[in-house]
From TrEMBL:
GO terms for biological process: lignin catabolic process. SUPFAM superfamilies: Cupredoxins. One of its GO terms (molecular function) is hydroquinone:oxygen oxidoreductase activity. The keyword Oxidoreductase applies. Belongs to the multicopper oxidase family. It is found in: Secreted, Extracellular space, Apoplast. This is Laccase. One of its GO terms (cellular component) is apoplast. Its EC number is 1.10.3.2.
């Protein structure tokens, strides 16, 4: 009896404990389920119809290429972890592709978009569906055409918010009261495709733009533009998040908002330590997120942007675009900010070198590939019997390590790589990891024997998982200037920048290995250098190029071919069935 009684009490105790444990587990599972529901990634489907639309700018009517008839194009808004399916239907008159600028495209290189690099173009009357996931990135990116100069009008914002329930790392973790996408651009009073085609035919520099724009509008300082000036209503005391995107083709920009301090909190969809400033410098391709508290006397205030032009003697668009931040007051004339001079390199440098990553960098302890790339312009000799529009009857060119990049025309590089031997002859894997000739890169008078690059379609092969460091060295061939270098498929740490020639013995110790900013586009200073580092963990073919479209047109580009790793998760996905044919 005692034994039986003891056994009964023990069973009862075990049963009660089991029940309590079961209830606890069920509660935990329910809690996890709710969390999963809160943070579950979504899939969005969009259709982008590339088509002509009529607009009026600077007193003239134009027919421009757009997406869905909008200029700028539609903003895509996602949460981190979401997947996008975007069907691009080409109802225009030009070949087109779309690049999702800054998206890592992990294993989905077929959706990256650069024409003849990862795909053949979408021809008029055809379509292609881009499929990718936006993972591990929060902030502001953008999308744009990556064919010829179509991105002048075919572009839009890509806004990536934290997943539901995940706090922002600024503003006390709270979402900003209001978010304002601000796309800075350039406007030509003629068809930009005609501009670049004329320049390509003659070898001359293309015409500069006729206006700068904010969200597609030039603003008060241009003819026939005042009534359409972009205006942002704001409320006293509110803190808003301004999402700046430099969508201009060829112009780096100083930006300032009269009477207000801007606090930078992110760049290229990576968070930064808060940095308060009165002026931004944003290169084409770059994005910058800033918080602004509207704490000034109620009035109207101009946001203004003008060129930062670092190349001496080179023509540029020396106009100023404006938008208005309006506290809801009367029609008093807006206050105008003071912008730096167009050649104020000291201010540009002060801005870029003040950015720091929010957290300690996850840098590899080793460097497997130490590369040194010279970047700059040059000149091709004119063909016999031909008249060319460059200096002294030459054609303008540009190069990396003296190789002027030539796009294929029969097959994309990624298709050729995936196809193996059957696609031989499209590219070669012998891009030089160092300049073929070492010289004083920033000398006042570089030998004319070094001005002419060699055309080629060359890639640099990287082993999956390799830690890569690249010194990007500007040159003073023909004209030195700041080059915004963009790498597809990757973010990278900017470890440092400086003037003159990079000296490993002198400059390596100055590199920031603690909290460097992470970006996808780095400005290589005029007559200077920048050092970037990344891990090659994304298989595919990834273009690196100057984001001044005039320079990529001239050949300032190369591509990394990152090999597959081990297993499916370290390998490029198979090409989709609707991949366009050349």
């Amino acid at each position: 009896m005692l034994l039986a009684s003891g056994m009964s009490r023990s069973s009862s105790t075990v049963s009660s404990s089991s029940l309590l444990l079961l209830i606890t587990l069920l509660a935990a599972l329910l809690h996890c389920s709710l969390l999963i529901q809160l943070t579950v990634a979504k899939e969005q489907y969009h259709e982008f119809v590339v088509q002509e639309a009529a607009v009026t700018r600077l007193c003239r009517k134009h027919s421009i290429m757009t997406v869905n008839g909008q200029f700028p194009g539609p903003a895509l808004e996602v949460s981190e972890g979401d997947s996008l399916i975007v069907r691009v239907i080409n109802r225009g008159i030009y070949n087109v592709t779309v690049h999702w600028h800054g998206v890592r495209q992990m294993r989905t290189g077929w959706s990256d978009g650069p024409e003849y690099v990862t795909q053949c173009p979408i021809r008029p009357g055809q379509s292609y569906t881009y499929r990718f996931t936006v993972a591990g990135q929060e902030g502001t990116l953008w999308w744009h055409a990556h064919s010829s100069w179509l991105r002048a009008t075919v572009h839009g914002a890509l806004i990536i918010r934290p997943r539901s329930g995940v706090p922002y790392p600024f503003n006390g973790g709270k979402p900003p009261v209001r978010e304002i996408p601000i796309l800075l651009g350039e406007w030509w009073d003629m068809n930009p495709i005609d501009v670049v085609r004329t320049a390509t035919r003659t070898g001359a520099a293309p015409n500069i733009s006729d206006a700068l724009t904010v969200n597609g509008q030039p603003g008060d300082l241009y003819k026939c533009s005042s009534k359409d000036t972009t205006t942002f209503p704001v409320k006293s005391g509110e803190t808003n998040l301004l999402r700046f995107i430099n969508a201009a083709l060829n112009t780096e920009l100083f930006v300032s908002l009269a009477g207000h301090t801007m606090t930078v909190v992110g760049a290229d969809a990576s968070y930064t330590k808060p940095y308060a400033t009165s002026v931004l410098m944003i290169a084409p391709g770059q994005t910058t997120d800033v918080l602004v508290t509207f704490d000034q006397p109620p009035a109207r205030y101009y946001l203004a942007a003008r060129a930062y032009s670092s190349a001496q003697g080179v023509p540029f668009d020396n106009t100023t675009t404006t938008a208005i931040f309006d506290y809801g007051t009367s029609s008093s004339r807006p206050a105008m900010p003071t912008l730096p001079a167009y050649n104020d390199t000291a201010t540009a440098t002060a801005f870029t070198t003040s950015l720091r990553g929010l957290r300690k960098a996850e840098l590899p302890s080793r460097v497997d590939e130490s590369l040194f790339f010279t970047v700059g312009v040059g000149l091709f000799n004119c063909s016999t019997g031909q008249n060319c529009g460059g200096p002294n009857n030459t054609r303008f060119a540009a190069s990396i390590n003296n190789v002027s990049f030539v796009l294929p025309s029969t097959l994309s590089i990624l298709q050729a790589q995936y196809g193996g031997a059957a696609a031989a002859g499209v590219f070669t894997a012998d891009f030089p990891g160092n300049p073929p000739v070492q010289f004083d890169y920033t000398a006042q008078n570089v030998s004319r024997a070094l001005w002419q690059p060699v055309p080629g379609t060359k890639v640099y092969r990287l082993r999956y998982g390799a830690a890569v460091q690249v010194v990007l060295q500007g040159t003073n061939i023909f004209a030195a200037e700041n080059h915004p270098i963009h790498l597809h498929g990757y973010d990278f740490y900017i470890l440092g920048e400086g003037s003159g020639n990079f000296d490993a013995g002198r400059d390596t110790g100055k590199l920031n290995l603690e909290d460097p900013p992470m970006r996808n586009t780095v400005g290589v200073p005029v007559n200077g250098w920048a050092v970037i580092r990344f891990v090659a963990d994304n298989p595919g073919v990834w273009l690196m190029h100057c984001h001044l479209d005039v320079h990529i047109t001239w050949g300032l580009a190369m591509a990394f071919l990152v090999e597959d790793g081990v297993g499916e998760l370290q390998s490029l996905e198979a090409p989709p069935p609707d991949l366009p044919l050349c």
